[in-house]
Amino acid sequence: MTAVEPQIIEVADPDPLEVGTTATTVSAKRSRVPWRFLAGRAAFYLFTLWAAVTINFFLPRMMRGDAVDQYLARNRNVSPEAADALRALLGLDTDKTLLQQYGDYLALLLRGDLGISLLHGMRPVTEVISSALPWTVGLVGFATVVSFAIGTIGGAIVGWRRGSRLDSLVPITTFLSTIPYFWLGLLAIAVFSVNLGWFPIGKAYGVGMSPEWTPEFVGQVIHHGALPVITIVVASLGGWMLGMRNMMLTVLDEDYIMVAQAKGMPNNRVLWRYAARNAVLPQIQSFALSIGFIVGGTIVMEMVFSYPGVGKLLLDATNAKDYALMQGVFLVITLSVLIANLLADLAYAFLDPRTRQTEA
């Protein structure tokens, strides 16, 4: 019998472009759900939420006066008994300590009761915020997404073609971003509304219109919102483009980009699958913050264009010392920022596994 020689099976080394970079799919061992990472993030954001709610309660009460004092200054025929009853209804009862009021506030908050707004005729705060929230989210949210998309894609292309004429877009957009927003908004109104008459001067829709899902009303909303959207995009485009362009210049010097080009991969694949995918990671965190602060709105924008959003609502509530409305708006803004950051952490961990491995 002749001995059978063992056969040696050669296994090719894995392609570093397929498994060795953060821009591609990781191995199955590392793709399991990072429960420890998620639990740590959830605990951190729950503690942050409690701290924000606590500050949200005590901070307005450090101001001089309250909503009842403001109301009594405008209505001098209110009896002292009615004023005391009004304070008790608003949670401002002087017979209770701040800690007792804080406990009552948390109990109402857990039931979803944000109180009533004296500024808006004793309407529930949830109802007041719900009527203003869609305008801010629709306008500022759409403008933020558009500016992020244009700035990120444009910055990736400018960084890829560094040294070309496209580099001139960066200083132009950066210069526009340095102009104060109120000045840019007033200039846009003077040129495009007053002189050219292309857009309305302000408001969310025309006089005499009532909110309803009709083609005429939707057209009015789009027409009135076009100029504020364009102004926000122009004012914020420079930051997105500059940040993405600088990250592209850093990523393009990495070894895996050179290896991909040496293997003869198409430029579009190297640009979008490897370079841009890694360069966009820092942009995601900034975008999450922007998405979170969308709910807060742009107070200056809403003042310049007389837009009925949450930003203007918060300003009016602060001037009137309407604690319940102030706390409700701050709470909604805080929740939106925390949720946006949590989603950004998850997206960041998905795109860059090193993040969850390090923190877990």
TrEMBL record:
Chief location: membrane
Keywords: Membrane, Transmembrane, Transmembrane helix, Transport
Limits of the ABC transmembrane type-1 domain: 133-344
Pfam families in alphabetical order: BPD_transp_1 (PF00528)
Segments passing through the bilayer: 38-59, 132-160, 181-201, 221-242, 287-308, 328-351
UniProt KW Transport keyword: yes
Compartments where located: Cell membrane; Membrane
Membership in a protein family: Belongs to the binding-protein-dependent transport system permease family.
InterPro entries linked to this entry: MetI-like, MetI-like_sf
Membrane topology recorded in Swiss-Prot or TrEMBL: Multi-pass membrane protein
Alphabetical list of PANTHER family matching this protein: OLIGOPEPTIDE TRANSPORT SYSTEM PERMEASE PROTEIN (PTHR43376)
Name of the molecule in the record: ABC transporter permease
Record Gene3D superfamilies: MetI-like
